[in-house]
Amino acid sequence: MINSDLYNFTIVAEELNITSAAARLYITQQTLSEQIKRLEKQYGAQFFVRKPKLRLTPAGERMLTYCRKVLSEEAALLEDLQDLDRSKSYRIGYSGTRGSFILSRAFPIITAEHPGINITLISDTTGNLVSMLSSGRLDAYITSGSSCPPGCKAEVIYITTFVYICRRSLISQYCDIDGFEALPYSEKLAVITRTPFSSVPSHFPFRKTLDEFRARHGLTFNEQFALTSSNLNFSLCKGGQAGIILPVELARRYTSGLDLSEYVRLPLHDMIEIEPLTLITGGSDPAIAPAEFLSILKTCSPKED
Fold first, then answer.
1. Residue 127 domain flag
2. Are residues 146 and 286 in the same domain?
3. Which of 91, 223, 251, 263 is 20–30 Å from 110 (CA)?
4. Of 52, 67, 85, which residue is a domain's last?
5. Within its chain, how far is the Cα of 299 from the centroid?
6. Which of 283, 303, 301 is nearest to 156 (CA)?
7. Phi, psi angles (nearest 5°) of residue 173
8. Is residue 305 one of the residues assigned to a domain?
């Protein structure tokens, strides 16, 4: 603050009571009285008539007018400086595997295109992210689903698709592996249902999606393994013991560094996640325009040929 005495003078002028003004300022009456006397000495004017009741003199009324102007200008300066600081930072929240996946791709692009902006990533529950965005502590967040808090905007980044993966050596036990790629989609599905299948755990969000896909095609997978996490299930796939269906994001994570020529990858284009991955932005004026950020995220969306 430019001068706390000016602010304290304004409070006294509003209250016209030293006791209540001191209580409002959380200081003693003596300290406040000394500040007022210091101001009067500094400006060579008497601002208050003390008796019988405290009231402003003409000089005090003029002083109050100028104090309010000075304090208003200082408040505007502080807000401008905070806006300047905000313009150099961009705070992104995310929840879940998909949010982590896409930001791991988008982060290098954002930092390269905006080298002067400090990018902060915050992982939390959707409920907490909503609260942080509403209170101005976030500029945007990424989450599953299409629900949007009041006053915010939701934009779909992508809708997850899935891929079936298994080792070629496993498929070769059930059909001519060299002719597998030439089979129609429905016949490929028929082949993969005969192979040992590592089932998706029931608590996984896309289990319902998988069950609907199986019902739509009349499929019954040969579920010989039922483990508790997709990475354990994929280890069976990697070892050639079973096939597995995974969201594209997880499939890319688990197959990174592997020789994909040893695997069959069947994109399941008609199997999609019910809940899209969504970008939620608030009503502020962030350092990176929401449309630009959305465009970067869409560029980083997983695609399976």
1. yes
2. yes
3. 251
4. 85
5. 18
6. 301
7. -80, -10
8. no
Assigned domain for 304 exists: no
The token duo for 7 is 């602010």
Total number of domains constituting the chain: 3
Tokens of 76: 């505007």
My answer on whether 228 and 165 are in the same domain is yes
Q: Which of 60, 85, 110 is the last residue in one of the domains?
A: 85
Q: What is the pLDDT along the chain (305 residues), one digit of tens a residue?
A: 456 788 889 989 999 999 988 888 878 889 889 989 999 999 999 999 988 889 999 999 999 999 888 888 877 776 666 555 555 788 899 987 788 888 988 999 998 988 888 888 999 888 888 888 887 788 899 988 777 888 888 899 988 888 999 999 999 999 998 899 899 999 999 998 889 988 876 767 677 888 888 888 888 888 888 777 778 888 888 888 999 988 888 888 888 888 989 999 999 878 887 778 899 998 677 778 888 999 999 998 886 54
